[in-house]
Amino acid sequence: MPEAYGFTGYGGPETQRFLALPKPVPGPGELLVEVYAAGVNPVDWKVRAGMHRAFLHLDLPAVLGREVAGVVEQLGEGVGEFEVGDPVFGSSARGCGGYARFALLTARQTALKPAALSFTDAAALPVAVGTAYDAVGQLGLLADETLLILGIGGGVGVAAAQIAREAGVSVIGTASAAKREFVESLGATAIAYDRDDFDEQLEKVLPTGVDAVLDLVGADALDGVSALISPECRMLTVAAPETAARFGARSLSRQNSTKTLTELARRVEDGRLDPHVRGVFPFEEAAAALREVESGHPWGKVVLEMRRG
Ligand SMILES: NC(=O)c1ccc[n+]([C@@H]2O[C@H](COP(=O)([O-])OP(=O)(O)OC[C@H]3O[C@@H](n4cnc5c(N)ncnc54)[C@H](OP(=O)(O)O)[C@@H]3O)[C@@H](O)[C@H]2O)c1
Fold first, then answer.
1. What is 129-251's CATH number, 3.20.20.20, 1.10.3720.10, 3.40.50.720, 3.40.50.1970?
2. Using CA positions, which residue lies closest to atom 41 of ligand 1?
3. What is the mean pLDDT of residues 203-216?
4. The domain 3-124+275-305: what is its CATH number?
5. N vs C: which end of the chain shows fewer Cβ within 10 Å?
6. 76 CA from centroid of ligand 1 (Å)
7. DSSP character for 273?
8. Residues with Cβ < 8 Å from 115, sequence gap 6 or more?
9. What are the structural domain ranges in the chain?
């Protein structure tokens, strides 16, 4: 029986374990993939903690993970755009996680992996980088405008910074002081949220406010920059819709299509975008990988490797 890593009941990390499960069978519009790499995201521990129970029904035990890169092993009914043996990457089919030797992908949220793109980088694209691409697009940023990213140092933030910079946007991002150089390497200006002079740093860098804010932190992060938010400022949150509503921020609408994934892969291939996979863990260390993300302070993206491509 192939291995998978999941959880047996809603709760903390103590509910996680390796599971021996039969190979999943692809339904209509799905692909069975031998997984080479799987992205690790905050949503994974949030699902385990039961935070998505109201709208995501899972049969337990459930496999963790929402995105993989691998090789097509079997096609579900009606899938004509891929062939057995194709290298692909995409979003896990609903309810079937990606931390596994074999996983199901939804064909319309899957793309062919270019040869020059590693499986590890490809597995990092659907959730965090796709979210960044949608968010920057939905903020309608113009060249020479200024974007403030709250939480620039994680998977979504590093990608959003690069996508906005490529469009000629000035990017300022909040991160822990330890990440200053990392943030600057993205072409962005770093503001350390964990220093006492946070307000002074903001005022120095943004004396006249900001055109747009992308909130990737939630909680009271928007309160901390409220002085910069004019009525014209566009705001989008992926982290805390309830806080953001007080400021009139919009929530993200995910596109998550083959077309977007293909565009992201092209950008990585061209060297215009780097998902910054800083945490690579072998599958056997899935618990450590998720722990790093659950800490709330990873550097860039975290990915599990099931086998080398
Ligand atoms: N709605 C969606 O479709 C969607 C999709 C993707 C992600 N999300 C959500 O978006 C959020 C970010 O996702 P992600 O993948 O980028 O997470 P991540 O990779 O875990 O990164 C989070 C980053 O936030 C930084 N951070 C923590 N506290 C902060 C603070 N007070 N101020 C500024 N930065 C802080 C952390 O590092 P430092 O503290 O060291 O700077 C870390 O780099 C998560 O809540 C996730 O669930 C939603």
1. 3.40.50.720
2. 175
3. 92
4. 3.90.180.10
5. N
6. 34
7. -
8. 87
9. 3-124+275-305, 129-251
List all residues 6 or more positions away from 93 whose beta carbon is below 8 Å from its beta carbon. Answer: 26, 27, 30, 103, 104, 105, 106
- Angstrom distances, CA of residue 1 to CA of 21, 34, 71, 122, 162: 6, 14, 19, 26, 41
Q: What mean pLDDT comes out for the span 40-69?
A: 95
Q: Is 162 in the pocket of ligand 1 (CB under 6 A)?
A: no
Amino acid at 262: T
| In the block, residue with structure tokens 């692809």 | 26
150 lines ligand 1 (CB under 6 A): yes
C-alpha dihedral (78, 63, 264, 190), degrees to nearest 10: 160
- The model's pTM: 0.97
- CA–centroid distance for 221 within its chain: 19
Contact 86, 122 (CB under 8 A): no
At residue 210, does pLDDT exceed 80?
A: yes
Q: Which residue among 67, 133, 237, 297 has the greatest number of ligand 1 atoms within 8 angstroms of its CB, and so is best to mutate? A: 297
Between the CA of 242 and the centroid of ligand 1 the distance, in Å, is: 16
The pLDDT tens digits for 14-28 are 999 999 999 999 999
The H or E element that residue 119 is part of is: helix 119-123
61: left (phi over 0), alpha (psi -120 to 50) or beta: beta
| Ligand 1 pocket test target in 131, 180, 215 with most atoms within 8 Å of CB | 131
